[in-house]
Every structure is written in C-alpha cells, then in structure tokens.
Amino acid sequence: MTQLEGTVVDGVRIQAPFQPADTPDPFGRLWTPHRMVYIGGQDKPADDSTDQCPFCAAPGRADTDTLIVHRGHTAYVLMNLYPYNTGHLLICPYRHISDWTQATATERTEIGTLTARAMEVVRAVSHPHGFNLGMNQGQVAGAGIAAHLHQHVVPRWTGDANFMPIIGKTKPVPQLLGDQRDQLAAAWDSTPTALDTDRPDPER
Ligand SMILES: [Zn+2]
C-alpha cells in the first residue's frame, strides 16, 4: 500500500501504513519523519538518573517540541508521547521524585489541581465520556518511567476499548500530537473552571 513502509529513515523503521508525503491523505497533513527521530530519542531512559530523565529534560525545552500543555509552579502538564487514548495527558512535578509520598504538600495540591484542570480542558476540547486518573508506583505496577512521578489523565469514550488493541500497535503521528498540544494549550487559558477559590472548604 505504501512505498516507504518497512524502510529505515535515520535509524527509525517506518511501521505504520501511511501515504507518501506527496500524496494527499484524508487528513491533508504531511508526515514528518524528523519528528519520529526526535521521539525515538525520548525512549526509555538507560537508568534512573535525572540526566537520563525525559520529564526532567522537557521543561528546559520549547513547549511545542516537548508537547508541554501548561506550566505550573511546582508541576507541569504534557502530552503522553505513547498515548493510551487521544488527549492522554501527564502531570509531572518538576522535581525528580519517584514516589507520591515524596511529594511536598504544595506539590500534592498542585498536581491535584492540575489534574482537575486537565479534565476540564480535555472535556471542553474533545468531549470524552469518562476518564482514568492514576499513578503507577514502581516498574512492577506498570510505570514506564518509574524514576519520575507522573499522574495519568486518560480520556475515555464509550466503546473505545474495542479498538484500543488495534490502535495500540500504531505509533502516534507527531503532527497529530502537535495539533492536539496546540489545541489543549489554547483551551487551557480559555476554558471556564469550576474551581471557586473563594469557596471555603467544607467543615470536617
Ligand atoms: Zn526526572
């Protein structure tokens, strides 16, 4: 079906079916292999150190390159490069800590606030029917990058589990992730919030 499938470009094997760049596809987008090379470099770190850690490196780079959607004071929000679903976001503290119990009170509060905000923004942009929220603590629990804490915000749609095994084998196309980042970053500033900072916490 494609001319390039199975070939290797800059060390990256092209796997997903796609149209060559000079052939208009149904989405009218160009395929950008140079971004795949960049993402190849974002693969699993060789060890647990901060200089191997993509979540430590991301804030030092441009938002559009690292797919950062929003930067808070102690934590930031970025797109997952290997999403379980469209719009899959991660909330990371800036500090290189691995365990939720190591987070300060301020980090715990901000990660919680950013999680709720991420839900509001993704809801406004792509209208999911539900969400999975959570942190995998330790490699055995499924953490891809166990050394640096990250909270998953995964939007869910009715029936999405039926095609997940199929798209699970498909690498995300960076152009689409970039488009999503732009959309979510813009919505982050414009979406109304349910958070009323003037409302007192209920008595315990
Ligand atoms: Zn880190």
UniProtKB/TrEMBL annotation:
Pfam families: HIT (PF01230). InterPro entries: AP-4-A_phosphorylase (IPR052908), FHIT (IPR039383), HIT-like (IPR011146), HIT-like_sf (IPR036265). Residues 55-163 form the HIT domain. Signal peptide: none annotated. A motif (Histidine triad motif) lies at residues 148-152. The keyword Phosphoprotein does not apply. Gene3D superfamilies: HIT-like (3.30.428.10). Residues 182-204 are annotated as: Disordered. Keywords: Nucleotide-binding. This is HIT domain-containing protein. It comes from Actinomyces ruminis.
